[in-house]
Write a structure and sequence with these properties.
Radius of gyration: 17 Å
Distance between the termini: 53 Å
CATH architecture: Alpha-Beta Horseshoe
CATH class: Alpha Beta
Number of helices: 1
Helix content: under 10%
Order of helices and strands: EEEEEEEEEEEHEE
Strand order of the largest sheet: 1-2-4-6-8-10
Length: 159
């Protein structure tokens, strides 16, 4: 595994990445997990390649990486932690495997979540017909909002 200077990887977990990282970063092959806060505050990180085999993105892993505009999770990704991409103000699109568990506030409201490569690529090319004119997130596919359960106020339970 070829590891750039300042990057700490222990037992397959990327634990730290230098804050002054260049515009693009390739996570080395063999990394199974991107640890908690690994890239937090890397304001100049504009793109990242996460290799197949990486299964977990830790809490706040990419928090406040303000230059990120899109991200593609590998098919092997099983979990994305709480606020993993929180405060990534320019993140507009994320490709997330359908079977991946996504943590609370994992992506900013401005980000569209896709579970298939075709829609993700069309979006990046600016040709997705379903574009919404309003501000905020439009969640496509598996991450679509679910209707609120009906409440039986007589018993205070979901019905």
């Amino acid at each position: 595994m070829n590891v750039p200077p300042g990057v700490i990887i222990e037992d397959g977990v990327l634990k730290n990445c230098p804050k002054g990282i260049e515009v693009h970063f390739d996570v080395p092959d063999g990394v199974k997990e991107i640890g908690r806060e690994s890239f937090a505050g890397c304001a100049s990180l504009a793109s990242i390649h996460i290799p197949e085999g990486c299964t977990h993105i830790g809490d706040w892993a990419f928090w406040a990486c303000k230059a990120l505009t899109n991200v593609r999770m590998p098919d092997s990704c099983e979990e994305i932690g709480t606020e993993a991409f929180g405060r990534c103000e320019n993140l507009r699109a994320a490709l997330v495997p359908e079977t991946c568990n996504v943590g609370v506030y994992a992506f900013p409201d401005s980000c569209r979540i896709f579970d298939n490569i075709a829609d993700y690529r069309r979006h990046l090319a600016g040709n997705l017909a379903e574009e919404r004119a309003s501000d905020g997130v439009e969640i496509v596919g598996m991450h679509a909002p679910q209707p609120e359960p009906s409440v039986d106020y007589r018993g205070g339970r979901d019905i």
